[in-house]
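Q: I have 906 residues here and want to know how they pack in 3D. Can you give me a structure?
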Amino acid sequence: MSAFERTRALIAAALVIVAVGNPAEARHRHHHRAAAPAAVAPSGDLAVLRARLPNGLRVIIVRNTLAPVVATSVNYLVGSDDTPAGFPGSAHALEHMMFRGSPGLSADQLANIGALMGGDFNANTRGSLTQYLYTVPAEDVDVALNIEALRMKGLDSTEAEWAKERGAIEQEVAQDQSAPGYKLYERLRSELFAGTPYEHDALGTRPSFEKTSGADLKAFHAKWYAPNNAILVLVGNVDPKATLAKIKTLFGAIPSRALPARAKFAFKPVKPAIFTIDSDYPNYTRVIAMRFPGLKSKDFPALEVLADVLSSRRFELYGLVAAGKALGTEFSLEPQEKASIAYAAVSYAPGADGNALEARVREILEKVARDGVPADLVEAAKLQERRSSELQKNSIADLASVWSDAVALYGLKSPDEDLKRIEKVTVEDVNRVAREYLKLDASISGLLLPKGSGKPVASSTPTGGMETINLGEAKPVPLPDWANAAMNRLDVPETTLAPVDTVLPNGLRLIVQPTKVSDTVNVYGHIRNRAETQMPPGKDGVNILLGSLFNFGTEKLDRLAFEKELDAIGAQERGGADFSLHVLAQDFDRGVELLAQHQLQPALPQEALTAILPQIAQSVESRNHTPGYLAQRAMVEALFAPDDPSRREATGATVIGLKRADVLAYYKTVFRPDMTTIVVIGNVTPEKAKEVIAKHFGAWTAEGPKPPVDLPVPPANKPAQVAVPDDSRVQDSVLLAQNLAPKRTDADYYALSLGNEVLGGGFYSTRLSIDLRKNAGLVYSVGSSLQSGRTRGNYFVQYACDPENVTKAAAIVVQNLKTMQEKPVPQEELDRVKAMVLRQLPLGEASVDDIARGFLDRTEYDLPLDEPTLAAKKYVATTAAEVQAAFAKWIRPNDLVRITQGPAPK
């Protein structure tokens, strides 16, 4: 993918993904120019309208008709690069305070309005950019634009509000500082960019926030948050000209400002360094990082292609995985305007020779610098970029993000401009930049060192016997006139979907949803399965081994030949019990042919099993001693009886004893057409989709009766508390849980779900967030979830906080649950939650991926494909008394299991 399509750089391992990157950063210098005419004609692409208002605000409107949804992105061209000396988190703190109110819009009003529109809003701060994001039903676009116009005009930022928000943002700092991947990333920045604004990321520190005042943040807003320092990107199913007129009315009178001077950069030569960071991950990860040129370099397009080539599954780096020497490899390029971080990463299990593996990675990169890269991989990378350019149209929110990064970070006119630059890149260009910038003698080496965990410690203190805390209330708040219409609208939205649902003669279910927003076809498949019930006794872990062996091609095409065939059509494919294909429409037939070959005739070769088995077994055994796994295990053991299938556990011993015959037998049991659903969505007719799927999957047959995949109904769990030590964390991750009898199809599901939204479904406006974050500042975020399956369910509340606040926060949760049982939800609060749930219906259709996953989820639980619409009608009809009754019947606040991971809780 193009670098601005990567929202977070990842180092991938077979059993764990270690996030070491920050959102792709770049610094874009804004040059003030004379205002262009207030309205301009659409560009050559009639779906795009651009304008620059007289006050300097740049506007880009991209029409996308996938769903009646709009995504807005207000991009301020300022971030951590331009924060005051000694206050690295100022831009990030201001981002938080933008949700605490502006003149004419209080924090409570903003929270309630955000929930009313579906609760899909967010923000992020980077080096040169701060973004504010809304995804809303198209009929509510005026509401989102009103919010952003008021926030651009001014900020309240009182000392009292900042004091509350400071607690929450300090918990976010503690959360990231508890992540080994983040600590690794921060160390890389400090080594590669010492003495420059890139030396630190946008997060900030507790000491800097303690000396920051509300007035400081208000002043930062006044300096930088100006229309002539902002780009408004709007993507969705709108009339571009009418929308531009609304934007002029709301934003046109906001005055431009003279902008301060930008930060200066003076890079020093990189001094080679080696460092180690303790980790609670199961595997080792080594990173070799270099400083590359930034976005403004003429060499950057060639560097993008180089990174794609080095990440190819046909390149030698991934060959280390295929040879069983590593669990995962990655080469990533994280761009900023003046310089970038490029790094190779390799993950491996305990017992492997890490020094030898790093030496081999260095040899591979040195060979590239010396001899260049294969020409066919360069062409394959460029074809993949073309396919990605089409795929980005398949999500309204993602398309807004891609456009925002293209114009605000890259300084381009559009994402297509990057593709055009890449199309011009030659093999000679790639080899030249490899020679010039792959400087292994000026690299930084970092190691994430697994430390495991001490034994979990049980506590006899029942969760329900805590002190009493005075709770806040979700009080009714009068809304501005421009938001009242949304509050009063409780109509069930009409779905835009019309899936064609058929079953092939072999039992395979096919669901087809045509769309024409891009020239792609996307295939998603799911085989109903459950390893806990389908693995033979003593064969625990065979599912893990099968998943790893799926990477080794088919009976007709070995691993490299299969990947080459995918590259020839620019396809993105994944095999397994959950499988997928993304391909240009012209190559739909060939793509499905390869997918079917992979699913029905996987090679699962003995030589590959022999190579990878020791690392997989070591990794599983190491996983079993990590804090994260022990916390998950403690929860399962507290919720379910000893003979429950969910308590089965793979170990290094069970995995190392597996044979190819075990894998083949398990594959034959799981992979059956009569347990499979395939969703096809894209630029294809239902007739053509059925023809192609039947052609390549129609001969697939099943033998014997269907295997058991449902778990038994468990007895109600007892209260328990377990603390899992984790020395890598500075705060505790807390999970409160209970098992539930109601399954997904039970009548009480909808009342429980609606009540859960009251507690934890809409950020600031929910009861848990009001009490734990907004009023007390105890947590950065808190979420609750109702998980109901085919035979049983669970209820969870999850948060992270300082150890001394664990018990206090848990007491607030328990009291909130009891209040739901004792008092009906006030009608105004219930109506607000209903409005949010209703607006989530169109939001759930705003990306091809969401549409397909929704269909697959419904088939998994034997629900009708139009269940969201049916559910919306049930939500509208549900009363406060029914919500109260459902919570009183099923939720057991005094039986919660509390699992903590981190320092000893208090």
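Q: Anything worth noting?
A: The chain is about 40% helix and 20% strand. The domain at 48-251 is CATH 3.30.830.10 (Cytochrome Bc1 Complex; Chain A, domain 1).
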